[in-house]
Amino acid sequence: MFQAKSIKVKIQDPHHVLQNLEVPLVSRQHATLLLGAALDGAHWVLARDLVRFLRAINPEADCSPPRTSTGPSTDEDTVNQVFMEVILTRHARKLLGAGQLRKLGSFAAHLDFPLQNFLEKERLRAAKVEDFVTALKAVHTDFEWPMPASPVTPGTSQVGGAGDEEATHPTSIGGQPLRNGGMEGAVVTRGSPADSESTSEESWWLEEDEAGLHAASVAEPRGSPQVEAQARYLLHILGQARCCDWALPLALMLGDTLVAPLVATPEALDKLMQWALAECPGYVGLLRQVQGRGSDTPSSNGAVQRSSPMEARRMTAATTVVTEGPEEGCRVS
């Protein structure tokens, strides 16, 4: 569970400042500046309070004559809602563009931000990845997840034997559960922050003790059980939103050899393989498995084709769920 940090400002009680900003337009300007600082500093509790304050402001209270109509008016509410959506969406784009998926999840949880809807809209814009090597490094840094130090033996992240095709997986693509890639049957079924009754991250981030119950015993270095649970939930959301570009590096970080082939393009895997061969041999075995060639030796430039009959059957079944056309997102080849 993330712990909200207290913002360091000279004034000890920011809420006291807001209560004494008597002119609504001035209140809005100052609160907006403070909200930007709170978001940049990941001070989610303060940001949530500022959002509530801004939504409650009537921007015309100090410059408009009293209304004579007693009927309900939603003009001010609509303006405030659009104003807040612009600010929050802009910050979400900033986090996504920087590859800060973990922070994006915490931001969405605390501020009741509709993360899945956002990712669906941005999958071909802000959520599009141009450099998958940089993206993979970014998620490792963001989740404090160590790079594999030695070649990963194919199947170490699988649960059960090669014939275990029915085990559940906490990540799903298009609403269908997939097989576990390292959490021994753990299934994350939490809703999005927008669907939760609580705006706090406890409503959808697994608690540390709860996550520890689902931790897999694996030889390769991994992040903490809590971090792994968070990463798997975000992978689930990315899959539901068909946001394949960021699903790929997250699935690779988790060693998920079932999801990764469904969201990867041959070009992305080729570039990742070239990088792994040159800089990170611990990823070579995993990438070979994702590409469907097992332990076969890749060509000199690292390019190999996915040819495993098992993977072909899986991807054919998933195509009917995931693919909406090459121009609309997930690319299953």
UniProtKB/TrEMBL annotation:
<dbReference type="InterPro" id="IPR009771">
    <property type="entry name" value="RIC1_C"/>
</dbReference>
<dbReference type="GO" id="GO:0005829">
    <property type="term" value="C:cytosol"/>
</dbReference>
<dbReference type="GO" id="GO:0006886">
    <property type="term" value="P:intracellular protein transport"/>
</dbReference>
<feature type="compositionally biased region" description="Polar residues">
    <location>
        <begin position="292"/>
        <end position="308"/>
    </location>
</feature>
<keyword id="KW-0472">Membrane</keyword>
<protein>
    <recommendedName>
        <fullName>Protein RIC1 homolog</fullName>
    </recommendedName>
</protein>
<feature type="region of interest" description="Disordered">
    <location>
        <begin position="147"/>
        <end position="203"/>
    </location>
</feature>
<dbReference type="Pfam" id="PF07064">
    <property type="entry name" value="RIC1"/>
</dbReference>
<dbReference type="GO" id="GO:0042147">
    <property type="term" value="P:retrograde transport, endosome to Golgi"/>
</dbReference>
<feature type="domain" description="RIC1 C-terminal alpha solenoid region">
    <location>
        <begin position="17"/>
        <end position="62"/>
    </location>
</feature>
<dbReference type="GO" id="GO:0034066">
    <property type="term" value="C:Ric1-Rgp1 guanyl-nucleotide exchange factor complex"/>
</dbReference>
<feature type="region of interest" description="Disordered">
    <location>
        <begin position="291"/>
        <end position="312"/>
    </location>
</feature>
<dbReference type="InterPro" id="IPR040096">
    <property type="entry name" value="Ric1"/>
</dbReference>
<dbReference type="GO" id="GO:0000139">
    <property type="term" value="C:Golgi membrane"/>
</dbReference>
